[in-house]
Amino acid sequence: MSVRTFTQLPxxxxxxxxxxxxxxxxxxxxNSHEARDQxxxxxxxxxxxxxxxxxxxxxxGRQFTSVFIGGGTPSLxxxxxxxxxxxxxxxxxxxxxxxxxxxxxxxxxFEQAKFKEYRSLGINRLSIGIQSFNPDMLKALGRVHxxxxxxxxxxxxHNAGFEQINLDIMxxxxxxxxxxxxxDISLAIKQSTxxxxxxxxxxEPNTLFARFPPVVPSNEQRADMQELVVEELAxxxxxxxxVSAYAKNAAGAKNRCAHNVNxxxxxxxxxIGCGAHGxxxxxxxxxxxxxCKQKHPAKYLEASSxxxxxxxxxxxxxxxxxxxxLMNALRLKEGxxxxxxxxxxxxxxxxxxxxxxxxLEKGLIEQAGLSLRCTKEGFDWLNDTLELFLxxxxxxxxxxxxxxxxxxxxxxxx
Length: 414
What we know:
Layout: E1 12-18, E2 20-21, E3 33-34, H1 41-55, E4 63-71, H2 79-92, E5 94-105, H3 112-120, E6 125-131, H4 135-140, H5 147-159, E7 164-171, H6 178-190, E8 195-200, H7 208-211, H8 219-235, E9 238-242, E10 245-248, H9 258-264, E11 268-272, E12 277-281, E13 288-293, H10 297-302, H11 306-309, E14 310-315, H12 321-329, E15 336-337, H13 338-345, H14 353-361, E16 365-368, E17 371-374, H15 376-380, H16 382-387
């Protein structure tokens, strides 16, 4: 089989990238830039809406189920600028009436009046980049906010009327002890939010930490810390539905991040903004393409056409389909329904029967009814599981594939 056949296109989301931040963190390899001068809000919103208009012919007639405004630090933008942006999005797209609209925010940018305005714009989910409540850990990470500001930010979010709030926390930090992590977990739980994301610090290439590596916990200590996070959050009623994501389970799937679930289920997404990535399937051509925009804000703002805004477009090769799908879907604790594979890729899963059989025999995946999911071993050693699905020697080793890094997706959007 050499042609994809879509009987139904996957769900569609919108990612909006705002690249500016107060200060570049030493661990961050996302497309973010320190705002040394005044942020050009008006010009950038103009560019974003032109970018979206240029993308729309690729997804005519399709409804957007979620919007994620990431960065950088999107909460540096005024409510007026975000109002204009979201009004333009609603005018250009078929945005679902109950769409999840998420804004990333960092402590230190929180003002009660501004966040009440954000909520009034239809933003219904906040993701707050806490990283740690410990002053020493915040200093080690180069964060610009204090522990007090972190706690205040959560209070402001609650008081502004946000019901869906996620806190981003990191662990295995420079010289972090188990006691310090336990304190962070306890404080995160006490904030009464609906979602927590706990990410292990990794020293990514092209970062300050890569050039000057800090002393971090050993592999054994990191594994113990991961187990501590899982156990403590489970006791507190948080369901680990993805490798790094935990939803308060009282409301079931309602508290999960719908936008990220669409990524993990190999859904489609339009990406607008400098450095933003998109993945779009076409029933007419049978293609799945990834699109990337110009990374630098100046170059993105100077673009006068769709062609100039677009930095790169590549097809997902047929042979790489299983790896591309599985490196997302197997991060979900429940795995995926087997029919979903063909529905979202346009290719039958039995094309990869041999590596599937190997993964089953090795005890890395298991079948539960009509679903496939990782076993505990497969979940803990996900790269080993995915390595079985490498298409051939022409493709690089599995560790070069971005397996959903901090905050976002397999597309290195940020």
